[in-house]
């Protein structure tokens, strides 16, 4: 009976995923739909056990010996067998698809979804191409792969100059004056321009990533790779931790305690299913924030890791935010104010978490910083309304009178 409920859901998921063409954009919907359906069987067992009386009746009519289950037997079956079976199926699905957003990101290669409009096409799938999470373990592979590829262009020049005769022929056919280069000209170009350009690119990449092993060592904060086995967990990332401790020992409160702190962190991750499913960046934010008192040395290492960009995502977010913030109407923002606005926009709390009380407090403090011409001026009143009210308030306070300008009054004058 259990299998008859679950198998159709899994069969439908299997059929949906069995397609010759890769439909990455629907993977998340299909998998999460299957997980939700299977999980609902546990949350609403009455829907799955409604055929139980009919099944029991059919078995009772058979010639073999059959003991009719009591209500207590059914209840024990639900809790000890059915619920555990459902949990096992859900866990299996979640473990098979741990990185659905990454898998869906490959939908960027779907040619049928490329927009017609040029502006939309420029922004098409930008988020899929970028990753905000820190993937330290792949930095070395990516950088060294790029260096090897660029360097090979110098070592195997014939692959890069094979189109040169065709290009020269096309230029020779044009109406403008063109001097066809000789073999000696091509050779000099290779040695004096092309080779030097390749060397400059390689040197630039090597100078930008001088400490790749240290950068890769921050993969010790990846919660998804912590081993299940206790012995393996004890030895996990010991070398990476030692490398970071030696590199940043001057700023650590007590470097000798870093190993014990990391052992506690690994065991905490092993016991906390929620932490196991978080990203490297989120775990480092927790270590550098809520867990900083318990792990003072790891807190500083995590803070350093968060400051090291492992992708262009943050840079791209910065440019996008700048374009959104510094509009034609706000083109006179100075660097200090612009930097503050960008930081709040990119790293500040969500607007949904911004309470009315906090907003009123901030507006009040801003209004009191200095005299501001906030209201519309009227004939015979060269200064702002708030300035006049502040003057009146000072006079009233000196004379022991009532204070006219309250926080609510300020806000009502500003927010119109």
Rg, Cα atoms, Å: 33 Å
Instruction: Let me know the average pLDDT.
Output: 75
Oligomer: single chain
Instruction: Estimate the helix proportion, in percent.
Output: 55-70%
Number of domains: 4
Number of strands: 0
- Backbone structural class: mainly alpha
State the shape: extended
Offer a few descriptive terms.
416 residues; mainly alpha; 4 domains; extended
Characterization of this structure:
The chain is mainly α and about 425 residues long. The protein has 4 domains: about 1-110, no CATH class; about 135-210; about 215-305, no CATH class; about 355-415, no CATH class. It is about 65% helix and about 0% strand. It is built from 24 helices and no strands. The protein has helices at about 1-15, 25-45, 45-50, 50-60, 70-95, 100-105, 120-125, 125-130, 140-155, 155-160, 165-170, 185-210, 210-215, 230-235, 240-250, 260-270, 275, 280-290, 295-305, 315-325, 335-345, 355-370, 385-400, 405-415. Helix 9 (about 140-155) packs antiparallel against helix 12. The two termini are about 65 Å apart.
